[in-house]
Amino acid sequence: MRRCPAGTHRSSLPAAVGRVNGMLRRTGVRTALVAAPLVLFVVGGGLAPLLAPADPAANDLAASLLPPSPQHLLGTDQLGRDQLSRLLYGARISLAITAAVLTVSLAAGAVVGAIAGYLGGWVDRVVARVIDVVVSLPGMLVALAVIGVRGPGVENLVLALSLWSWAPYARIARARVAGMRGSPHLDALRLLGAGRGRIIGRHLLPPALAPCLVYASTDVGTIVLGVATLSFLGLGVAPPHAEWGQMLIEGRPFLASAWWLAYPPGIAITAVVFAGNLLGERLAAGGERPSVLRLIRPGRMRRAARPATGAEPPAAPDAVLIVRDLSVAYPGDGGLRRVAAGISYEVRRGQILALVGETGSGKTTAALAPFGLLDPQAVVTGSAMLGARELAGLAPEDRRRVGVVFQDSAAVLNPLRTIGAHVDEAVRNAGRGGPRGATRRVTEELLGMAGLPDPAVVAHRLPHQLSGGMRQRAQIAMALAGQPELLIADEPTSALDVTVQAQLLDLLARLRDELGMAMVVVSHDLAVVAHLADSVAVVYAGRVVESGPLDAVTKAPDHPYTRGLLDAVPRPGAAPGTRFRTMPGRSGIGPDGTAGCGFAPRCTIAVPACAITPPALEPAATSAAHRSACLRHPSRSTTTDGTC
Ligand SMILES: Nc1ncnc2c1ncn2[C@@H]1O[C@H](COP(=O)(O)OP(=O)(O)OP(=O)(O)O)[C@@H](O)[C@H]1O
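Above: query sequence and adenosine-5'-triphosphate SMILES. Below: predicted holo structure tokens.
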């Protein structure tokens, strides 16, 4: 026989315990053990007619108050009724009432909370106050008041306990849904034409129900206790029904002489309360991992833009999107803080406009503000037209004319739904659905258009089963469902590797060419958009500092910031060994950061006038369509000492 080396056996015991523990945890056996008493009584109660040895209401005064014996495993009560049978039927009644109360409370609470969380505003404030009031009231008093008014009985018992216990569910659901409000996923759904009811019912309630269910397992104990207490007070289930609280009342006078009357229902109530609480704790500790919320980032549709204030060059006749004098501000400590001002751009049919700038420059703000896709607190002014119509007043069906592709596809796609289900929904919202098979055919066609191989197979995949590039293609397929004339792509390739990035850019270019769509592509990388865009608007510190046809802006950059951006990335034809240059200083924050040009503090050719006068966008040397906002560009007469 082989011997263990000295000391090995000592350390192997904790290790073995750890292994068993780990195995129990992985297999879920620990949770099953914790839930066992609850399951036991649920099954016992459910099968009571089969398992109970006698009729729980059958009196036999000759067998009164018999102690436990093989004939009566838990003895008999003062009327000679079999206690085990009453315990099993009692489980049936107590747990059925508990289940009814939990169902009503959970459903009502989750729906109220989800609606309040989604709508926000005064609805949310009112619901929040009501929840606060209900939660702060002593539950048993509420129940007593309701039963006092309506009288005892099972229905009134359920109503009384539900009126007291719905509020925590509403609070949980409200918090969860409020956190999801404004997520890219919901923004995308709204843009695809999904109504409020559908968004709340299909997309917000399921994730809100998950934490509610965890709470419900803890609540089992509280409700079982509530049912028993009210029955114990004579306000719940009336005799001769076997109910655990009722059994306790009947056993109370015999506590000293016949312990088997009160102890079994007391132990059953305690076991179920403990099991419910422990189960709730275990689920709460382990159940949050696949949370949808973790993947969601904040932000939401907001305010309508108002008409333009400044004079701008006339828009091209085939312009699909015309944005004029867009300003965005957020409330801060000292009042509103502007993060974008005076932004104007347009994009023509079959053309791609790139909005470029460093991180925080305001390019995403410039692209999403016209569509109400910013944080709810954003105060947006300016005008945005989709063709000839104000975007702000656009009907939901017209909103489908705009598709949006967000940077973070994992946040847009619901991890619990297949790619096919996402696109199917977009197809139906766009009014292109039909019978299931017909919708799916359109879905597969769209997935194919977005360049996904084997669309029928991909449609059955969940988002996490696809690569980042494939998920972006799935988002593009969703956006295409509404046959949009305009596509907004917010940094669509920034999280992807270079090869996939190039393939996606090719796809966008192909869609522009084949479908004649206009696109606004947001990117921090001028080199990326150089392969794709027809025109460029360079954004710095919340203002457009240079705009124009791609060739003009990239080959003859007029603004020192644009030159800085171009020098910081590899350029075709650059001599071998050419070093990239970095720009000194930090990105400017908002148009109110300096009185003059926002870039002046970092600019190597700035003159004193640059810090005083905010430059306007004016035609640059190459053409009237190429404009830049710099006092130092050649067409201006500013001298190097700053005098004009
Ligand atoms: N909810 C908000 N509240 C306050 N300020 C905000 C909010 N959202 C954005 N900002 C500010 O607006 C400015 C522009 O942000 P924006 O997201 O448009 O920049 P960006 O150029 O797209 O940057 P990135 O590439 O990092 O997304 C930033 O200074 C940012 O801090």
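The chain has a mean pLDDT of 81.
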